[in-house]
């Protein structure tokens, strides 16, 4: 779910997108559930990506490895944590808005904890995915009735071609 949200946000923030266009993440008909999803899942995934960016900066990895880092499961898409932070902080220059409370971005202390919990001596960001999955846990949210299960709603989302 986070991957789709991150890609929508990145696309909306492209310089080629006219300034008159704003991506509105509505959250209706269940804004409380949407807020819970952002707080429990999307914010955590953004924090993990920030931790990966800090642990594997371009100066530490070769350009090819830097591209490889973007394929690691906890990595959503370039610029996602910054875009989410702008939304959460109500940045008026952001072309992305939420109609529900998206929560607060994780602070530096929480991100440092992620870095400490991962293999610091490794130059392989893929090892982080092995820690991310159990740390993330199985996240489940049920939509309120009469909405269909999320898996059916996600099937209706457009897919991006790589």
What is the strand and helix layout of this fold?
Elements (H helix, E strand, L loop, with lengths): L1 H11 L10 E3 L5 H25 L7 H7 L10 H9 L7 E3 L9 H9 L9 H11 L13 H6 L7
Parallel strand pairs: 1-2
Q: What is this entry, summarized?
A:
The protein is mainly alpha-helical and 162 residues long. Helices cover 48% and strands 4% of the residues.
Low-confidence blocks of residues: none
Cα radius of gyration in angstroms? 16 Å
Helix-strand topology string: HEHHHEHHH
Let me know the number of strands.
2
User: Percentage of helical residues?
Assistant: 40-55%
Number of helical regions? 7
Largest sheet composition: 2 strands, parallel
Structural class of the helices, strands and pairings? mainly alpha
Q: Shape, please?
A: globular
Strand order of the largest sheet: 1-2
Ends apart, CA distance between termini: 17 Å
| Beta-strand fraction estimate | under 5%
How many domains comprise the coordinates? Answer: 1
Mean pLDDT: 83
Structural account:
There is one protein chain. This protein is mainly alpha-helical. The protein has one domain. It is built from 7 helices and 2 strands; from the N terminus they run αβαααβααα. Strands 1-2 form a two-stranded parallel ribbon. The longest helix is centred in the first third of the chain and has 25 residues, at 31-55. The relative contact order is 0.19. The mean pLDDT is 83.
């Amino acid at each position: 779910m986070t991957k789709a949200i991150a890609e929508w946000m990145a696309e909306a923030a492209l310089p080629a997108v006219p300034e008159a266009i704003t991506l509105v993440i509505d959250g209706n008909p269940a804004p409380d559930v949407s807020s819970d999803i952002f707080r429990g899942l999307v914010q955590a995934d953004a924090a993990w990506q920030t931790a990966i960016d800090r642990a594997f900066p371009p100066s530490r990895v070769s350009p090819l490895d830097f591209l490889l880092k973007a394929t690691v499961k906890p990595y959503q898409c370039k610029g996602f944590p910054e875009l989410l932070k702008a939304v959460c902080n109500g940045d008026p220059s952001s072309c992305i808005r939420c109609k529900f409370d998206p929560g607060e971005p994780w602070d530096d202390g929480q991100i440092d904890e992620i870095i400490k919990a991962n293999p610091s001596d490794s130059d392989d960001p893929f090892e982080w995915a092995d820690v991310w999955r159990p740390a993330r846990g199985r996240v489940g949210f049920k939509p309120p009735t009469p909405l269909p299960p999320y898996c059916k709603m996600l099937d209706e989302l457009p897919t991006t071609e790589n």
